[in-house]
Every structure is written in C-alpha cells, then in structure tokens.
Amino acid sequence: MSSTEPHRDHLNARNCRNKNKKTKGEKMTLKIKNRDIVVPGELLGTGDLLLGEGTYKSGKNVHSNILGLVDSKENFIKVIALNGRYIPKPRDVVIGVVKDISFSHWSLDLNSAYGGVLTVANGTDYFVNLDDEDISKIYGIGDTVVAKVMNVSKAMNAGLTMKDRGLYKLNGGRIITITSTKVPRVIGRKGTMVQMIKDMTGCKITVGQNGRVWLSGDNEELAVEAIRLIESKAHMPGLTENIREFLEKSTGNKSSLKPKPVGSKEPEAETEESKEAEE
Question: Are strands 76-81 and 50-51 parallel, antiparallel or unpaired?
Fold first, then answer.
C-alpha cells in the first residue's frame, strides 16, 4: 500500500461526514399547520421539502406564492388557491358549453381563460360524413356537454373527448358556477360530500373540475344552497358535519353518512386530480 492511500481514506471519510452534516442541516421544518390559510410570500417551512403547486423556494426557505390553503403530507407541501379561474389539465372532467362550430369540430367555453376543442372524431361514437352532415345537429350553439381533457396545447387550449364512461350531453336541469379550486371540497373524499347532497335532496348532480355544476331534480334550490355553503366555508374544519346538519335540518331527514367520532380529524378533500362525481 502506498503512503498516500491512508491520507486519501482520511479525506474520503471527512468528506462523507461533511456531506452527512449538510444533509442533516437541511432537515425540513414546517412553520405553519396543515389547512392554514397563507398569503403570497408567507414562509411555509425550511429545508428538504418537496414542492407542489402554489409554492416556491428561496435559498432553504419555502414560501407561498398565492393566497390559499396549505396541504402538507410528510415532506410534501402545496398551497391550494382560494380563488382564481380554471386552468385545463389532462384527465380533468369538465362541463363545457358549445360557443362556436366549424367544419369538423366544436369550440367549447370551459369557464376559463382558455378554450376547448372537441373534434367530430372525439365527439361521436359513429362515423360522420362531413360532406353530407351538419354537425350542428349533433351539438348546437349553447349545448352543454360533460367531456374529458385529453391534452393541453402550449397555448393552454384543451383537446377534449367524449369517448369515455360518464361523458354525455346534458339535457334539462340547471348549471351553477363555483370557484374551481373549491371543487374538491364539493366532491369530498371518495365522493362522499356530493353523494350526501344527492341522497338528501334527491337531485342528480355532476361536478366538473372547471367549476361548473349541473343539477336536476325537485329540490334543486336546497342542493344549490348546500353547494354554496361548501364554497363559502371550504377552508374551515368540520365542513362535512356542518353540511350534514344543514341538510338534516332543512329536510327533516337523517343522513345515511356515518357520523364521525367526536374529536376525529376532518377528512381531507380530494385533490385537483379528483374525477367528477358521476350520477
């Protein structure tokens, strides 16, 4: 063994210790609590945090860049915006309104700064001879459909499809619009919130990720009131129990949703990737 090898081993060991010290020094520390409301620039934590939407890092510090609700799990953190218009994402199920018709596709309003395009190939299950058929007879101006975002262009326009389960043209009923960031709370964990509203009001309800909600039934006003209540109190704990009490008092019936034990934690809402609650 050469005389330089012990020296090299000593340097390697020292470098390893220094690296470990650096890693240990970057241990994550949260400065806020889960479900806290934060403002732009507010310090969320320090160290080795995985960043989600609504956050940015400056040195070792992680900050919020929007007004929103903190959602943290283990070493992951994001901020869910409390307001703002819908931005299309692949796999989102949306409720769109036909605003224009061309030779081979429909242009849809998605309650967003960005539009959606539904081609004849993706909008029907049968062959359409474009030389002979007027596609406005399939979907006309003002028609409303439940569609899925397949892809999003660089200009943020959404390519849509209706070739999947639960995608169809809506007839009758009414549509209300809510803040798209509140959609996960309206749907609830595994669809429990919207299912409770359906059960207690007898309404059919479809929720689009773009903030449009379609309702049909004899008790639409009560269903709308419940959804508006969720929208206004989406950031508050105990939301499910509050909505249950409101519906039970309004209808005089008991909800079939099992009450939570006293002191139990409010279930977290589904993420923005939640699918719509189907009928």
Answer: parallel
* Fold match, 4-81 / 93-170: yes
| Rounded distance between C-alpha atoms, residue 213 and residue 202, angstroms | 15
Place of tokens 């020292």: 14
Name the architecture of domain 93-170.
Answer: Beta Barrel (2.40)
The H or E element containing residue 136 is: none
In this predicted model, what pLDDT tens digit does every residue of 119-148 receive, in sequence order?
A: 999 999 888 888 888 999 999 999 999 999
**CATH of the domain spanning 4-81:** 2.40.50.100
Distances from the Cα of 99 to the Cα of 117, 140, 164, 166, 222, angstroms: 10, 8, 22, 22, 30
190 burial type by CB count under 10 A (0-12 exposed, 13-18 middle, 19+ buried): exposed
Cβ–Cβ under 8 Å, residues 155 and 161: no
